[in-house]
Structures are given as C-alpha cells and as structure tokens.
Amino acid sequence: MNNIKIAALFPGQGSQYLGMCDKFEDNKCVNTILEQASNKLGFDIKKMCNEENKDIFKTEYAQPILLTVSYAMYKLYRELGGELPDIALGHSLGEFSALTCAECISFEEGLELVSIRGKLMSTVVKGYGMTAVVNVSYENLEKLIRKMDEKIYISNYNSPNQIVISAKEDIIEKFEKEIEIIGGRTKRLKTSQPFHTEIMQDVAIRFKEYINECKFSIPKFHVISNVTGEVHKLELIKTRLIQQIYKPVNFTQCMRTLRRRGIDNTIEFGAGNILTKIAIQNCNELSAYSMDEYADKNQLNELIKINSNKPLSLLNTVNLCLAEIIGTKFNNYMVEPQRQLNDNYKKLELIRNNIEESKCLNHEDIEEKCTWLLKKCLMLKNVPMEEQNNILTKISLLFNI
C-alpha cells in the first residue's frame, strides 16, 4: 500500500533556459506535445528553446512555452506509471499549468489563455524592476518599505527567507542598498515590469474578457490558488486567476496548505528546479524532486519508484504535527493561551530535535507525547472540534503505519 502523498509543483516565468528541451529530444511523448503546441501557437517551440534565440525570455513567448514544457513532463511522468498527485501548486503562470494537468481546462485552451495573458502582460509600461530579498523577515521588510515612503510593492511571498518586491528602477537601487545595510541580500530579476502588483489591474480587466469565455471542469486533483493559499473552488477559479495578475503570489501560504494536508513528496514539472529549492525552504522535511533532473527513462522510473515505495518516517509524522499547529487558523487572542501555545510547540520541537539526533527512540512514548501536545495546541488555538478530530485521527493513523 502506498502511504506517500505527492504534490505536483509547476514553475512560472523566469525558470526558462536555453536548451531546456534537449534532455527529452528523443522522447516521443514530449515531442508529440511540443509539436501540438507549436502548431497551435504558430512557432516552433523546440527550435526556439534549443537555439540561441532569446525570444524565450520575452513574456509573450515564455508563458505558452513554459506551460507546454510543464505539461509535456507531466504527461511523460504519467505515461511511465507515475501516480496521480494528491494536490498541485503552481507559481504564477505555473498555476495555469497545474490546472491544465489536472484537466480542469484542456491543453489547447490553456495554451490560448496563457498566450493571451503573456501578450497582455508584455504591454505594461516598462521602467520597473523586481528584486528578490533574502535573509530579511516580513516584519523588517515592511518596516523598511514604510520608512522609505516610496511606491514599493510586494509581488511574491516565496518563503520565510525570500520575498520579491517591485518598484521603479531608481527606487529599486535605493531599496537594495538599504537591504544591505540591515543585513539582507538581493538578487535582481530579469524583468522590466511589475508583475503581481496593482499596476497590472488594467491587464487583469482585459484578461477577464478572455477567461470568461472558457469552461473550467472539476479538476482530477486539488489545485491551490496563489491568491488565497487554499484549494481552488470551481466556481471561483476564474475570479482567482484574474486577481492573481495584480495580487501577490502567496507561495508561503500555499506551502502551509501542503503541510497541513500531510504532503510527503513534491515533484516539480517544468524547466529547472527553482520551486524544488523554494519548497524545501518552506518545509525542510519534504522530499523534493525536479523532473528536469531525471532525463532518461531509467532515471524517471527510479523517481516513480521512490515516490511509490518510500515509507513514512517517524520524524516526518512529528514534523506533520508541527505543521498542523502552524497551518491551522488561530482563533484565540488572549495572552496566556498564546504563551502556553508557544511552550507546547517548543516541547514538540524538542522531541523532533531529539529524534534527529537519535536520542529519542521509544515509538509509543513519542506517539503519546506528540498526540497530547498537538491536541493541547489545537485546543489553545480554538480550532473547531470537527477539524481537531480530523487532524488527530490522521496523525494517529500515520503513527501506526
């Protein structure tokens, strides 16, 4: 019996690189999809990806190409016997890839939508920049933005250690110097447009005309919204995809939802391994894989085998207890319960640390203590009783695998 829960990750714009189809050039499944997309779009994707053609870095080309590459890798994975994911998560454009692979929308319609989206987004006024901020907390970043009193927008909450901001070029330069002063680092992104900010609202209005003509079906597996960080509701998918253009990508909250749902492994379908790295930053107990790193059939079969047969460890279950505490909504704002919650959480962390150092090996003792501490924390947060019972039942089953 396979007890592993798998999440599919789909990267967004910025993950592309020249030669990104080389590894799969002899694969019939991949080539068929590349040809199908090329015929639909009117340009040769394989040729564009594998030659010295910088058009793949232009928004209007990058978005349909990246969806195609992600879709091709996912279909190859399934063709070789890979299991249907339990849930999927895309980053910006990758959310469209996730919905397409979940058969919420057809591949042809998905291609058409992101092609329109890319063309619309490429028309936004240039002269802006985006930079990734590392080693600065959300709180300190927001303080700095208030202090500078400039139009600086948060575009992506990627992980507790990485946030992407957008602003005009001259403001970005000042901002990056201020980040260095407070001990952080920055990495400028290759774009001149402020994606996922209020400046994109006109694009969202124009995109609405096109997306409203599309029909979305119930997906084969859950897909998480970048806007809310929660699983999409069918009737709200169009609304969320429109909002996603001008609202920040809340990838951190999306990862919390994965943890809360007991995900063990992630597989990234697309160019490179950017999301694999970010997923581990958010949740270091995950086993994370990038399809792009498993090029030939033998390696792919090994990836599929890993995700089918890997047993769930005691350490993972304790980490899931911690994740449930972080991921559930806090409904109790009294000072004393918050203090008790922190104390009990630290006790759980101590158990986790002792397991990692092989100091705590009595399975029954661990199960009893962790279950009690988890229950106590859920009660202190005033989590609804039905949700508490569901969480505790799931954890109890995992401890007894």
Description:
With 401 residues, this protein is of the alpha/beta class. It contains 16 helices and nine strands. It has helices at residues 28-41, 45-50, 59-79, 93-101, 107-121, 138-148, 169-181, 201-211, 237-243, 251-260, 274-282, 297-309, 314-327, 335-356, 363-380, 385-399, and strands spanning 6-10, 87-90, 128-134, 153-159, 162-168, 185-188, 222-223, 265-268, 287-290. Helix 11 links the parallel strand 8 and strand 9. The longest helix is centred in the C-terminal third of the chain and has 22 residues, at 335-356. The relative contact order is 0.12.
Oligomer classification = single chain
Helix content: 40-55%
- How do the strands line up in the largest sheet? 7-2-1-8-9
Order of helices and strands: EHHHEHHEHEEHEHEHHEHEHHHHH
Tell me the number of strands. Answer: 9
Counting H and I runs of at least 4 residues, what is the number of helices? Answer: 16
Detail the poorly predicted runs: none
Short synopsis of the structure:
The chain has 401 residues and is α/β, with parallel strands linked by helices. It is 52% helix and 11% strand. Strands 7-2-1-8-9 form a five-stranded parallel β-sheet. The chain has a four-stranded antiparallel β-sheet with strand order 4-5-3-6.
Features:
four-stranded antiparallel β-sheet; 401 residues; five-stranded parallel β-sheet; alpha/beta; single chain; 16 helices
Write the layout of secondary structure elements.
Layout: E1 6-10, H1 28-41, H2 45-50, H3 59-79, E2 87-90, H4 93-101, H5 107-121, E3 128-134, H6 138-148, E4 153-159, E5 162-168, H7 169-181, E6 185-188, H8 201-211, E7 222-223, H9 237-243, H10 251-260, E8 265-268, H11 274-282, E9 287-290, H12 297-309, H13 314-327, H14 335-356, H15 363-380, H16 385-399
Parallel strand pairs: 1-2, 1-8, 2-7, 8-9
Antiparallel strand pairs: 3-5, 3-6, 4-5
Helix pairs in contact: 1-3, 3-4, 3-5, 5-8, 8-9, 10-13, 13-14, 13-15, 13-16, 14-15, 15-16
